[in-house]
Amino acid sequence: MRVSRTQAAENRETVINVASRLFRERGFDGIGLKDLMKGAGLTQGAFYKQFESKEDLAAQASKRAMESATHRWSDATAANPENPLEAVISFYLSMGHRGERMDGCPIVALGSDAARQGQDVKASFEAGINEHLEILGRFIAEANGEQSNSKAMAILSTMVGAVLLSRVVNDHDLAQAFLDAATGQVREAVAA
Residue 1: which pLDDT band, with cuts at 50, 70 and 90? Predict the structure, then answer.
């Protein structure tokens, strides 16, 4: 049965969305094409009509995951428009975000995997990271009138590292301590 162009485009978007979530949960190498396509409700044969390779899908899914993360920052700031930087800090460095394996930060979930991928995957992450840095830089400037790329980099690095460390420990109290320590350091960095 032939699939219409519209349906093929919808199928492609579905695969990218599902891959974005499953890669964050299991890693790029933690899921095969058969299971990924099954998760999207499609056959493995449909994959090759939509993507050149698994790396092509990984690049598209990484871009989608980074876009999703940016939208989540926007949602957090919409809830606290008076202090958008605090809104992002509170959302990002929370136990709730720590527990979001499929929908959480792709930098945390896939950063070390992405470092071993090809240029296209890295480019997707780089574009998303640059967008995060631009947003943080704008929020810092709004908070204290200072334009500082290095401060935005330090804040993003601290937040990503804290969520990563909180995820790799079993001890709930230690996980919370990593998030709390990072929250304090980030707030101090903004105020300095």
Answer: low
- At 130 the pLDDT is 97
Query: How many domains are contained in the chain?
Result: 1
Q: How far is CA 114 from the centre of its chain?
A: 12
Nearest to 163 by CA among 132, 191, 139, 124: 132
Q: Which residue has the tokens 């998760």?
A: 39
Please, is 125 exposed, middle or buried when counting C-beta atoms within 10 Å of its C-beta (0-12, 13-18, 19+)? buried
Query: Looking at this protein, which amino acid is placed at residue 58?
Result: A
pLDDT number for residue 103? 92
Q: Does 5 reside within a domain?
A: no
User: Are 22 and 31 contacting, i.e. CB atoms less than 8 angstroms apart?
Assistant: yes
CATH number for the domain spanning 101: value is 1.10.357.10
pLDDT tens sequence across 155-176:
999 999 999 999 999 999 999 9
Does some domain include residue 41? no
Give the structural domain span for 67: 55-191
pTM for this structure?
0.90
